[in-house]
């Protein structure tokens, strides 16, 4: 059985997972960071608690905390059930069971929900969508995007990926995207065309191994830098 999502779903990971997915160093954490498609992840909330606030961008941030909690509840059981049916696609070392996975995800999403309304007022959670982001050219130093581009290759086409990645490169000098495989751990058909296209625009590209390894083939990120 494969994972199948009718559309992109809200599902959020923790601060520690973000550190490893993007291979973030302590120096990276002091940079001007934006997370695109952060959904109900707790990275923003944890960065705020550390005293180094970042910005997260998402179409679901148009909703209230109550509506988001409801939406998470509606999709959560299906996501966990699909993970149970697809256990062979994961490496169960860092996270040892589907039950532990369910607990970790809910803890991260709960931390996000608790932080959401105040963070929105402070301008840390912004309602916007790729491929059009409300920031000036080069506004950020480091742009992160996890489990959206490449991951949902069945739900978004190559044109969307190219436009989205050009937009990420417009608003920041360095972009990191994780993972570069899709929801079923298959290589994204869009990775090579995207790399070919951005290389023509004098962008330095590298596929790099990262410490995060949960999807069997999902331990690499794409780093893009203006050269
Ligand atoms: C699976 S979640 C990933 C959340 C988080 N980045 C993580 O890794 O835990 C994907 C998120 O992408 C968001 N999304 C969907 N379309 C988007 C778009 N066009 N621009 C920005 N975010 C989008 C969804 O709302 C969803 O919350």
Q: Nutshell version of this structure?
A:
By secondary structure, the chain is α/β, with parallel strands linked by helices. It has helices at 15-21, 26-29, 43-50, 65-85, 98-121, 158-171, 191-200, and strands at 33-36, 55-58, 125-127, 140-146, 172-178, 203-209, 220-226.
Which descriptors apply to this entry?
Rossmann fold, seven-stranded mixed β-sheet, 7 helices, 227 residues, globular, binds S-adenosylmethionine
The structure class reads alpha/beta
Give the fraction of residues assigned to helices. Answer: 25-40%
CA-atom Rg in angstroms: 17 Å
Strand content: 15-25%
Shape: globular
| Average pLDDT rating | 95
Regions with little confidence, pLDDT below 50 for 5+ residues: none
Ligand inventory reads: S-adenosylmethionine
Widest beta sheet: strand line-up: 3-2-1-4-5-7-6
CATH C-level name = Alpha Beta
Number of separate structural domains? 1
Largest sheet: 7 strands, mixed
Query: How many DSSP helices?
Result: 7
Query: Could you give the order of the helices and strands?
Result: HHEHEHHEEHEHEE
First and last CA, distance: 43 Å
CATH fold type = Rossmann fold
Please tell me the CATH architecture by its name: 3-Layer(aba) Sandwich
